[in-house]
Amino acid sequence: MFGAGAMTNSIPEIRDADLLFVIGSNTTEAHPIIAMEMKRAVHNGAKLIVADPRAIWLSEVADIHLQLRPGTDVWLLNAMAHVIVAEGLADEAFIAKHTSGFEAVKATVADYTPEEAERVTGVPAESIREAARLYATTRKAGIYYTLGITEHTHGTDNVYCLANLVLMTGHLGVRSAGMNPLRGQNNVQGANDAGATPIYYPGYQSVTDPEVRAKYEAAWGVPLSPEPGLNLNVMMKELNTEGIKGLFVMGEDIVLSEPNAGKVEHGLNQCEFLVVQDIFPTETMRYADVVLPATCFAEKDGVFTNSDRRVQRVRKAVEPPGEARPDWQILCDLARAAGYPMPHYSGPGEVYAEMAALAPKFAGISHERLEQHPEGLHWPCPDPEHPGTPTLHLDGPMVGIAPFQAVSYRPSAELPDPEYPLVLSTGRTLYHYNSASQTLRDPGTVAKQPENFIEVHRRDARKLGAGNGDRVRVHSRRGEVEAVVVVSPRVRPGCVWMPFHFPDQLTNRLTNDAGDSVTGTGEYKVCAVRLERLSPAPVA
Amino acid sequence: MNEPETFEILVDGASITARAGETVLQAAARAGIEIPTLCHDDRLDPMGSCRMCLVEVAGSRRLQPACAWKAAAGMEVKCETERVARHRVHLLEMYLADHAAPATPEPLAPKNQVLQLAERYGATRRLPALEARREARADANPYVHFDPDQCILCARCVRYCDEVEAVSAITLAGRGAKTTIATAAQTQLLDTTCELCGGCIDTCPTGAMREKKPRSVVELAQPVKQVRTTCNFCGVGCQLDLHVADEKVVKVSAPPTGTTLNDGNLCVKGRFAYDFIHHEERLTKPLVRENGQLVETSWEIALKRAAEGLRGVEQRYGAQALGFVSSSRCTGEENYLVQKLARAAFGTNNCHQCAAT
What we know:
The structure holds 2 protein chains of 2 kinds. Chain A is built from 20 helices and 23 strands. Chain A is an alpha/beta fold. Chain A folds into 4 domains: 172 residues, Dimethylsulfoxide Reductase, domain 2; 124 residues, Rossmann fold, CATH 3.40.50.740; 64 residues, Rossmann fold (3-Layer(aba) Sandwich), CATH 3.40.50; 112 residues, Beta Barrel (Barwin-like endoglucanases). Chain A has a 6-stranded mixed barrel. Chain A has a 5-stranded parallel sheet with strand order 3-2-1-5-6, sandwiched between helices. In chain A, a hairpin with a 4-residue loop joins strand 18 and strand 19. Chain A is globular and about 65 Å long. The mean pLDDT of chain A is 95. By secondary structure, chain B is an alpha+beta fold. Chain B has 4 domains: 75 residues, Ubiquitin-like (UB roll) (Roll); 114 residues, Alpha-Beta Plaits, CATH 3.30.70; 60 residues, Single Sheet (N-terminal domain of TfIIb); 70 residues, no CATH class. In chain B, the strands form 6 sheets. Chain B has a 5-stranded mixed sheet with strand order 2-1-5-3-4, sandwiched between helices. Chain B has a 3-stranded antiparallel sheet with strand order 10-11-12. In chain B, strands 6-9 form a two-stranded antiparallel ribbon. In chain B, strand 11 and strand 12 form a beta hairpin. Chain B is elongated, with a radius of gyration of 27 Å. Strand 9 of chain A pairs parallel with strand 15 of chain B.
């Protein structure tokens, strides 16, 4: 954020916060150990504001729960900005010194009154006011968000709105404050950092920058494409339109994990050549021409970079099974088989050194140095003497002047209608992990959650004549899935919620692959569905 | 940040610096002076119930618990007097009378601090053993085993469950000598708010709370080795110690409190969901498609086929017709190599990691 796509502050700062504003993050289930830090902060007296369409564990202990309708975040956040501006709570000194474009935001949010926001979001105007005041007037106030913010066609807009709140209150460069996206997977941050993105070389250096390109051409010894690549969402769509004809997939079951699974399957059928590199048989593998057996984290060396930009070691503990090989070796062998002279690295340490030498953000980090730092090193870390940077922007925004972005509300791509009257959101549970290839192979987590379920509000369940434990078929315009009903006080009337973990009852057959206009991130959090009761009707 | 106010206190004649708000135990620990404890855990509010940390405080007639006693300027504390030593031995002998040693030692069981302290301070089983009076209850949960015979009722597990995990699934139940650790309504653990984080096991000082999974490992051909690594599930980046025996991961534990960002804590997945590593369904051989079926082959053939297939697409349709999906589950180095493969070997920027949508 503000010059670095990552948490501005570090995880251990959370316990010292005076206010936590958690939005679009079911932290206790998705990031349990960060949630423990939040619980500690609350135990120590911090205020907690939770914005989530569902009643989640954190909202139960929150001072304010803003239970908004799914997809109306821009309304909620602009209304909070409206209150901050209208009540003179903005940090004018910070705004004048460090930001640009505040006037445009002021003009935009003028229309977003709390009363009008109540009509759209369903959140009482007074709660919006209270939350805005509390957030604006507390110094050590941090924002924590995750995919509930980004998995929308207006995900980038949601993030801009949060950034506007941070900037107008000067909550940047302050310990235990800032703007903190919690990364969903072990190495989301590290994968982006390493350049597994269509627009950046490692360390967020643009592929369109001729100087950067020249540096990599010199290092890698080949001419490189000046054209930005396609993001994942577009790649998946181009499988269907035959723009993409060959695909290499490492460590993701795209059939299970991408939205609108039926369309992904159709696209893979069109694909002429598919290579899959993974540790277990996957659904995607059914379409593969070549399958390369890889290794899990316990079988190889390397680094993961966590949510707070902390680079930490992964160390080999056991041998891989059978002929499986570490992914880094497979990738080098594949490059050489394709005629590219990939160096014969002695190990991942040498690969990291090559990456760090070309990316200033990580230049001071090495496997050797990490041995001396059991707590890891936070980038930016520009040289080997640098201690790393747990908190960003302490000397003002890294980008110099941080721009505000005025954002107006756009509805989600698919809204409920008489044919599909309910709004479906999806998410992770505590007991499983993504496509669950790991957690469905453990008897304990399976005992706790054996199969797919759908949380339904009492009113909607009654309308359907379904009770706890009844089976329903969930229909969307893209597919259908069976699930067990959990009549739940957690969801709003008109809303349902499902986890996405279960391959044989695949929730992503329902979800919408409409992507965010900037990032392409799919709209997993809002699509329209209807329920069909499968169990026999209860005896009257 | 504002530094807290500091002052000097005397511990066993040595002057040490304490911070305002600190307990005697905390100040001593920072100065490298060890005071024995049983019911104390840095992550929990002080309880002062086990009486192991009692010390002499000048001006106070009775011994006082260092874990709960706030340090004050000029305070004089003595931890190693004859009176304190006598107290420690007597206390430990009472614990021993109420504390059965495990019948069969388990290779992966945690250290029993009561037995360790008894040895250190010379406490023996001098007092007659109390009659066993706490019944073990069968619980169907897959991970947590509780042995009441080894429990000293320090309530660390209960307090961890309340204060750190904050789900309050277990409680001190019963009265007097029959007091034990149980779920609130005597239900099975799986039917409570328990989230199976295993923190109760981690904080238990005696091994009364222990893991079910590695109990099956009774005999080991080699000593257990521990490998520090980073968890492979969510983005928090918890540090793990993988316990390896006979080339298998047989247990996962958290590094000690205060040493890594997870501060001694883990969640259900990080601590327990490691069976996948050695699962029989792991892929062990390269496969290629022959006549519509995936069949086993050699690495050489698989790599050649993969390289030729991707090159073929590039030649027929151009590099822009290739896509590379990288993985946020894999290491930084591996992601670096995928983008290098896409960009340098195949000439396309169509490379994105899986968490992008």
